[in-house]
Write a structure and sequence with these properties.
The complex is a heterodimer of chains A (275) and B (136). With 275 residues, chain A is mostly helical. Chain A is 72% helix and 4% strand. The radius of gyration of chain B is 27 Å and the shape is rod-shaped. Classes of the chains: A mainly alpha (275), B mainly alpha (136).
Chain lengths: 275, 136
Amino acid sequence: MILALLCSFLPMNFIVIAAAILCLLHVYALSLEAAAVIGILFAVLFLLYFRYSPKDTLVVVLLPIAFVCKIPCSVTLAVGLLGTPVSAISVACGVIVYYALHFVSTLSKSNGVEISEMATKFKSVVDGIIGNKGMMVAVIAFAATVLVVYLIRRMNINHAWTIAMIIGALLNVLILFVGDLVLTTQVPVMGTILGALLGFVVAMVIKFFVFNLDYARTEKVQFEDDEYYYFVKAVPKVNLSTSDKKVKKVKSSQGTGEKEAGREKVVRKELSARR
Amino acid sequence: MLNEQRVILMSRLAMHEKKEGKENKSIGTYFRSDYISLRLIGAVIAATLSFMLLFGLYILYDSEAFIDGLYRSDITALIWTIVKYFVIFVVGYSLISYIFFAIRYRKARNRLKVYFNNLRRLQILYQRERKEKKQQ
């Protein structure tokens, strides 16, 4: 409770550190060996990647939560829409963290006697995490989804964001199913499809707030000069893609209607060629 | 009277200061080579620590095989193999870090240029206003 209160007003990265420490303490309660493996995993992730992109650390917290809620696709689509291609690494890290913690939690649920035997062996814990084929497939599926969504939403086409979300969700489901067929990762069919659909709905909501109105980039700033105090709320304009421009007919007569339409096509072609 | 152009400029400046201003300013105090080499030192340390952690995990993972290997095989050859992997790991990571920090430095410098340009424009606006007031 106190930790949640602290997280509410301390910087965003504190949530990640607090969550990591809390996870480690819980895993330590299960076994020292598992805690050591998870600790090394967290340390390596922090040292090698999150030192450079502290903004992406939240994905590592959100993705395991989304996995528990059965909607990991939502976070992936959101990252693809709002992030950069590098965010695919953050998503991959999030997937690895979830599967590592999931493995430890299944150990705790499975059998009390077995836990103490298994946990004393590093080998079994490491094998359980690294040898998890489902994790490998999920890492590839979610990282590929982020990249594809990013690439499509940057394309100069109408409804790029919606197309990106649809193709991203489909690709995610497809890779997970192909992975299941090839490596028998036991992916729940209905769960995955429903998760992708729910993810799509969540992504649509994000799109509404970010793309149409762009409230996400609203800035409230305060400054002063010799005469005034300024309290400015700046809402950025929505950037319309060039394809949204339309050529309007200024003059048209009944007899020359077809010619005008032809000219319009030529102008559109020229415009698209210039772009 | 409120000067709209001035408010826009001041808002842009304030937004820059609020969002990425501190980071850009700190990057702007370095020469490119100094900034990148400092960050590379950090990257080498991070890579070394990570390698040590992963190597430690490997030993714990298969300690029996590792100890057997120590007794059976040539120790110098084993050390050379470890050093080879270490160098590959550190050099690879440092190369990625170099590219990353070079791009970050370039972007920060460009943003600072825009920021100082806006500052100059604001100053010109102020000077113009003062002149107009004096004339009145």
